[in-house]
Design a protein that fits this description.
By secondary structure, the protein is α/β, with parallel strands linked by helices. It is built from twelve helices and eleven strands. 44% of the residues lie in helices and 22% in strands. The N and C termini lie far apart (64 Å).
Length: 307
């Protein structure tokens, strides 16, 4: 038995034709048939039934293929580990988490320098809620997290390092047709009470929403999302309103959340609308030179474009 035979069986299980599987593997049909037959003989189990109508996995084969797939996954994992161990400087992983809508500067910087600096680097970047990012940094599961935080909430990140990048204001985003845009002067609590809200999955947005409900009474919440396109659709087609930080709107995909389809309404007279955006890192965890370089490049571009 060898890995080649196991791979052949794995591929054949996904096709009903011996010829199709052989084409995928770039071997002859007869070569595939012989290899599978040898594997079946050694295992003492008939993995496939072969008829004029094609090839089908037997019930016994279904049970065996789960183990075959696991062996092949373990082989791939072993080879990857060996590659990293033999040349750790050439194969690195950069793990970053960010809060909603701000994907653009992270991806653009990685792509711009991929060929010269990151060609052997895996960028593992995911969108998470504020508290999840803090926990990931504490547990050293990621290199860094990009967060937005207000002055009143710095206790939540004590013992961690926070590097400020820029400031941003929280505003209310709505459709130009929304009557709240036609308010004379500052928006009132009565006007807010008549609105339907859609929220990003964001701890601080939740806290602000609770604060407004304390001031206004129960408010209508119709949608929670992480995606800026979905939020824009809700604002423009369902006539909802949402909280958004201006800087995050600038860096959302295609600037969807803050564009000609939406308007922003100031709410600084009702709640604390000032936030600081920056990197959260663990002082007990040393990030790689490549990760440090990427973070600095991202920071530089955010500072430039956030003005």
């Amino acid at each position: 038995m060898n890995f080649e035979q196991l791979l052949y069986a794995e591929v054949l299980s996904h096709h009903s034709s011996m010829q199709t599987a052989a084409d995928v593997l770039h071997i002859s049909k007869s070569g595939l048939s012989i290899a599978v037959s040898q594997l079946e003989e050694e295992l003492g189990v008939k993995l496939f039934s072969r008829t004029s109508r094609g090839t089908k996995v037997t019930p016994e084969g279904q049970q065996m293929l789960a183990s075959i797939s696991e062996i092949l996954r373990s082989k791939n994992a072993l080879e990857k580990t060996a590659m990293y161990v033999s040349n750790p400087q050439s194969h690195q992983r950069i793990r970053i988490s960010y809060m909603n809508t701000m994907l653009k500067p992270f991806i653009n910087n990685f792509i711009d320098e991929y060929e010269t600096r990151y060609s052997n680097t895996l960028l593992d970047i995911t969108c998470h809620e504020f508290t999840s990012i803090i926990q990931q940094v504490r547990d050293q599961e990621i290199d860094a997290g990009f967060i937005a935080i207000s002055d009143a909430n710095f206790d939540t990140i004590k013992s961690l390092n926070f590097t400020p990048i820029c400031h941003s204001k929280l505003v209310l985003i709505c459709s130009p047709e929304n009557l709240i845009c036609q308010s004379q002067g500052k928006v009132t609590l009565e006007e807010l009470q008549s609105q339907r809200f859609s929220l990003f999955n964001d701890k601080f947005h939740d806290l602000i929403f609770e604060r407004l409900q304390f001031l206004c009474g129960p408010l209508s919440l119709v949608l929670r999302v992480d995606d800026s396109w979905a939020m824009t659709e809700a604002i423009t087609k369902l006539n909802t309103v949402s909280f958004g930080r201006i800087v995050q709107g600038v860096f959302s995909r295609d600037n969807e959340i803050m564009n000609s389809k939406t308007e922003v309404v100031d709410i600084g007279h009702i709640i604390d609308d000032n936030f600081i955006l920056g990197w959260l890192t663990n002082p007990n965890y040393k990030i790689s030179d490549k990760a440090d370089h990427l973070l600095k490049c991202i920071s530089k571009n955010i500072k430039r474009d956030a003005r």
